[in-house]
Specification:
By secondary structure, the protein is of the alpha/beta class. Helices cover about 35% and strands about 15% of the residues.
């Protein structure tokens, strides 16, 4: 009807404000682990005759390179096995990129032992139920606004930027600027 107001419901999530507790957690970070699908990408898969591919943000890549230059290791731990993600990891010089991972916590524990990094010195960004165990295990956990409700409720931080469009850059900047 003309002239009536339409109520728009508020989102069920709100971006997280950085607290002194977050800063303390971020100050210890030596390793940032990222899921790929729905975090480093927008969560969509695209098909062409050459196969599946994904869309990545240049800004996220710049943030990853800056974080690496600051001395923080970056790793990918993904259940997916899309060639475009593998190529993106290689293009960013990510030495620890794991695809087709069914048990992310086990893979993380192997990587942490290899790098001699404690869970409290690690940040992880994930968006799905399969990420919950690892998100609860690390020193700083984050997700994207599009994540499932259970994940948003479990993490320390929800990004302002969406997946595949600056969410990872937001996290890399937080880690880089809050490290001691």
């Amino acid at each position: 009807m003309s002239g009536t107001n339409t109520l728009v419901s508020a989102p069920t999530w709100a971006p997280t404000l950085i607290t002194s507790e977050h800063r303390a957690r971020l100050a210890r970070i030596r390793l940032l682990c990222l899921d790929v699908d729905g975090v480093l990408t927008d969560g969509h898969l695209y098909w062409s005759e050459s196969g599946w591919w994904q869309r990545f943000s240049v800004r996220d890549g710049i943030g990853i390179k800056q974080l690496q230059a600051s001395g923080v290791e970056v790793a990918l731990i993904s259940a997916g096995e899309i060639k475009s993600a593998m190529a993106r990891a290689e293009s960013l010089g990510i030495q620890h990129a794991y695809f087709g991972v069914r048990d992310k916590l086990a893979r993380f524990n192997e990587l942490a032992a290899l790098l001699e990094v404690a869970p409290i010195e690690t940040a992880y960004v994930g968006d799905e139920l399969e990420d919950l165990t690892l998100l609860r295990h690390v020193g700083f956990s984050a997700t994207v606004p599009e994540a499932v409700d259970e994940v948003r409720a479990a993490v320390h931080y929800v990004t302002r930027r969406p997946a595949g469009s600056g969410a990872v850059r937001e996290i890399t900047d937080l880690v880089r600027t809050n490290r001691t």
